[in-house]
Write a structure and sequence with these properties.
Aspartate Aminotransferase, domain 1, 11% strand, single chain, disordered N terminus
């Protein structure tokens, strides 16, 4: 919407047939919003009536009696370790999850970080090697590379999809690069075709960090099943959760066996201790929760997608707050997080923080996501001073690593991101989605009231 055109004028223009002249840059008419906007001029932050007082979203993590019963049954068996029982919960979940995703197999671990680290080790990546990933992620991604004493090389991200930028990935390849670890951030697919093409041309492995992307799709395949291996997190906030847990999927039987061995302290399925490995096994209680939830998780994924599509439609053309850009073939996501970028140029000097405060007062709690990219955390200096890194990488390489930490895309996204923890909220009804839209629109339309607000 142009700065000189009010929302009301725009809606009038639409109804008088000027729609064709209006470009995609204009606010879409949302009747309920218009009604509310005139009803509640005064922002709740200053004593006005909130759009959604005491908004209660569906609770997350999800719990029901089926899950409780499955855990209780498992507790009673006294068989809590996967090694105590053949065909137990962990075995059953691994098989079911692999089938659900269309992967050859699955190996569970105690966390997503452990899953990623297991794959790095199983691929033989270690000191002296480099893995390219993005710093716009959970520290677990980078920790999985550091734990193998390999070098995490950081690529920038796209400002609007928040996903790793394939061109920057290619620029960062050296003769020591062994793998790319792209992240499907927010639970939606990154531009995997381009990553796979780069990997093919440079003979690199692709380890998909699908820790946020359960049941998300990319061009008809499930995220996590497309690269050499894909890793999932089942930590509490995730859309399939058991407190702490992780899973590796792959279509490569040898890699799956190697992963099993690595996470089983280097001991293979025949009980031979054959290599180096940590003990990262998932236990039967964790798998009981996952099994209790799995069937419903599918249904919940559909519901989240339905609500996400509804929100995308509502925000179509609304320039002040633009939902995460999705790549072609990546529209069916996980929607672990529903995110927008806050476009300063449309807020007349009102800050993201003022907006967040005002929208929270309307009853809708949104927040920034990662405060600073992980390229700004002290680990980057820590490794430069470490004996093993100084032994395995030349001073020039470590210098270059430091120089490459200029990542303006990540910095911009950190400063402009607005998000909703979507696990529970996107299971809510249409009225709740309208409340969310209406609260945002009310704050936008009455943003002048926020001028001078001290944050
Ligand atoms: C993108 C991403 N990668 C890795 C991880 C690490 O998973 P976990 O917390 O299960 O170790 C997470 C968890 O939040 C994540 O979101």
């Amino acid at each position: 919407m142009s700065k000189n055109m009010t929302r009301r004028a725009f809606i009038t223009a639409l109804s008088t047939g000027a729609a064709a002249a209006a470009t995609a840059n204009v606010v879409r008419p949302i009747e309920s919003v218009t009604a509310l906007a005139s009803k509640h001029k005064k922002l709740a932050l200053f004593g006005g009536t909130p759009v959604a007082p005491d908004k209660q979203w569906p609770k997350w993590p999800y719990v029901d009696e089926k899950i409780v019963a499955k855990v209780a049954d498992t507790v009673r068996t006294g068989k809590w370790c996967r090694k105590d029982v053949k065909g137990g919960n962990v075995d059953t979940f691994e098989q079911a999850y692999a089938e659900l995703l269309g992967a050859r197999g699955c190996v569970c671990t105690g966390s997503g970080t452990q899953a990623l680290h297991t794959v790095v080790e199983a691929l033989g990546i270690g000191p002296g090697d480099e893995v390219i990933t993005s710093p716009y992620t959970d520290m677990g991604t980078i920790a999985s590379i550091l734990s193998a004493r390999a070098l995490p090389v950081l690529a920038d991200i796209d400002k609007y999809s928040f996903q790793i930028d394939p061109e920057d990935v290619e620029r960062k390849i050296t003769r020591h690069t062994k793998a790319i670890m792209p992240i499907h951030i927010m639970g939606q697919a990154c531009e995997l075709d381009k990553i796979l093409d780069i990997a093919r041309r440079h003979n690199l492995k692709v380890i998909e960090d699908a820790c946020q992307a359960h049941l998300a799709e990319y061009r008809g395949q499930k995220c996590g099943t497309i690269g050499d291996a894909g890793c999932f997190s089942f930590q509490s906030s995730k859309v399939l959760a058991c407190g702490e847990g992780g899973g590796i999927v792959s279509n490569n039987p040898k890699l799956l066996e190697d992963c099993y061995t690595v996470q089983n302290h280097g001991t293979d399925r025949l009980g031979r201790s054959v290599t180096i490995g940590p003990k990262y096994r998932m236990n039967e209680l964790e798998a009981a929760i996952l099994l209790g939830h799995l069937e419903l998780a599918l249904e919940q994924n559909e519901k989240r997608n339905e609500n996400a599509r509804y929100l995308y439609k509502k925000f179509e053309g609304f320039e002040p707050l633009v939902p995460q850009k999705l790549y072609e073939g990546g529209e069916h996501g996980s929607f672990y997080l529903y995110t927008w970028s806050f476009r300063d140029e449309h807020w007349d000097g009102i800050s993201r923080e003022a907006f967040l405060k005002a929208v929270a007062a309307e009853g809708i709690k949104l927040s920034p996501y990662i405060k600073n990219g992980l390229h700004k955390e002290p680990w980057t200096d820590n490794i430069l001073g470490r004996r093993e890194y100084r032994a395995m990488y030349t001073p020039a390489r470590l210098e270059q690593f430091k120089d490459e930490l200029y990542l303006p895309g990540v910095d911009w996204v950190c400063d402009h991101m607005v998000m909703l923890w979507a696990g529970g909220p996107l299971l809510a009804g249409k009225k709740d989605m309208d409340d969310l839209v209406n609260a945002i629109m009310k704050v936008y339309e009455n943003r002048e009231q926020l001028r001078g607000l001290e944050i």
